[in-house]
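Thread amino acids onto this structure.
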């Protein structure tokens, strides 16, 4: 899935959020942090206009994934 997002983000959006349109990729290196999200894309949806889609692919269940995604979201807007 990570390769699909990197190579064809519109196809990924069509798969998971039909009707959305890809706008652009955002940086994967977050300011003031060594953390790197898997993918951050900006997209457009007819109802919610523009939004950031932070994708984090996991190979196993992580107990702290909600906190990790929250931290990524804060750092994205920092």
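Threaded sequence (78 positions):
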């Amino acid at each position: 899935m990570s390769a699909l997002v990197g190579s064809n983000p519109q196809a990924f959006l069509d798969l998971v959020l039909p009707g959305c349109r890809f706008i652009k990729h955002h940086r994967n290196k977050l300011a003031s942090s060594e953390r790197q999200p898997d993918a951050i894309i900006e997209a457009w949806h007819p109802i919610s206009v523009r939004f950031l889609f932070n994708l984090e692919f996991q190979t196993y269940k992580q107990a702290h994934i909600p906190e990790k995604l929250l931290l990524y979201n804060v750092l994205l807007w920092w």
